[in-house]
Amino acid sequence: MIEEDRRKAIFLLHQEGMPLREIARRLHVARATVATIIRQAGAVPKIKRSDKLELDEEVLRDLYALCDGYVTRVHEKLLEKGIKVAYTTLTERLRQLGISVVSDQRCAEVPDEPGLEMQHDTSPYGLAIGGRKVPVVGSLLYLRYSKRRYLIFYRRFNRFRMQCFFHEALTYWQYSAPQCIIDNTNLARLPGRGTGKDAVMVPEMEAFGLRYGFRFLCHAIGHADRKAGEERSFLTVETNFFPGRTFASLEDLNAQALEWATVRMETKVQGKTRVIPAKAFEHERQYLQGLTPHLPAPYLAHERDTDQYGYAAFDGNYYWIPGTERKNVKILEYSERLKIYLERELIAEYPLPPDGIKNEKFSPPGGRQAPPREPQNRRSSETEEKHLRCLGEALGAYLDFALGQKGIQRHLFIRRLLGLSRRMSAELFIKSIERAHKYRIVDLATIERIASLHLAQAELPLVEVDPSFTEREAYREGAVTDLPDLSKYEEPAP
Fold first, then answer.
1. Which of 71, 74, 251, 480 has its CA 20 to 30 A from that of 302?
2. What are the boundaries of each domain within the chain?
3. How far apart are CA 70 and CA 73, in angstroms?
């Protein structure tokens, strides 16, 4: 239940004209809950109290099935319906009806010490989001002593997303523990370089952790109980969070996850430990390490060439950057936004679109109307293609092959290929294209790597030197002498 003060705040903000999304973000409450509270005019709903469960067997069985057999969610659904009953009374009634049974399975306990340890783990799920089942990965950080949790779901989870997650969770808490127990995941551990306490961390991740005041530590193989608290947290997610909930989008899923894991669970008594995370954290805070002020958020750097209208393509969408027509820009990708630079000057900033948005064109917030991205005629692209074909038969043959491949955007590919040709010598470019054609490569980043390989292997002749320059005394003094004749060493010994 949302407390009375927060309900009044939600209703007051709504009366002042604040959108539901913004209210939900500021107060860390799911949008569906915000809408319900507004309909109730901010009042606390009257709760029917009963020491004995006033529900018949059919209703209980329906709720039990809806919540996939998780009694905690059944109890919460009853409270949402305005029926208050003791949890022990509910479990006893369910056992009497033969609906549920008690499990005595327990994990071995690891002593807790304030300020010593946090734990991180991920878990994949297939969830119904927006009416269709999609794969997601849950990432959860857990303070061992105070039982605080931070939970976010991602469509894909990699090293960059892992860094973004830790940044968001730890800046929310403003504290970190000196060590973080993780699985033997290759996102943080170098593969083949030990496990458990002997694991060698990826230097990038080790340096990342130190910026936030902690070290990654893999739990020992065969010691699953070492992360029992974290594993139990994901069990709680599966038994208490998922059942009986619907999710309209990934953003809605994460809004509900934040409200449940980071807001609601903060004030809820935790199982047999009887710990209330918010109170325990007040005690643990003095043993934790405060974060360094102004920690920069993690980001990935990308280079993009803009088209003739100033659009840069990124992750399936197009971003208009006025005044950058046919320029090379650097895009810094953060967890929730993009920053775009031209020659080290920040010229545009965009929020990342919601999950699933593709092939959309975006303009700078508050800026003038962006031009249509599609050209009115194709002469500019045709001219660029002719220029490439004039570089030789190898280029013509390669373009005939590449432009016939599925998924190639003709005009974008030609412009990027032309830009690549201008960043290297003609001979190196043609040699790289010949190799790309041989191995049926259309990825321009791979072609750049091929060019680098040619240079490393010294397959190309040295650039000719102006004869007038070679006659200078300084050049002659620094000239390399002729190599000695080593053929005699190849003759057989007498």
1. 251
2. 4-96, 117-290, 300-362, 381-456
3. 6
How confident is residue 232, by pLDDT bands cut at 50, 70 and 90?
Answer: low
Spatial neighbors of 248 by CB under 8 A, at least 6 apart, are 129, 130
Question: What's the pTM?
Answer: 0.57
Beta bridge partners, 124, equal: 137
User: What amino acid occupies position 377?
Assistant: N
Computed over its alpha carbons, how large is the radius of gyration of the chain?
A: 31
- For 117-290, CATH number out of 3.30.420.10, 3.40.50.10090, 3.40.50.150, 3.90.1150.10 equals 3.30.420.10
Which residues of 251-327 form beta strands (DSSP E)? 289-290, 300-305, 311-314, 317-320
| 82-86, 112-116, 277-281, 447-451: the lowest-pLDDT one | 82-86
CA distance 311 to 317: 10
Query: How far is it, in rounded angstroms, from Cα 266 to Cα 243?
Result: 20
- Reduced to 3 states (helix: H, G, I; strand: E, B; else coil), residue 48 is strand
Confidence of residue 250 (pLDDT cuts 50, 70, 90): very high
pLDDT at 174: 92
**Hunting for tokens 């022990």 — which residue is that?**
88
Token pair listed for 88? 């022990």
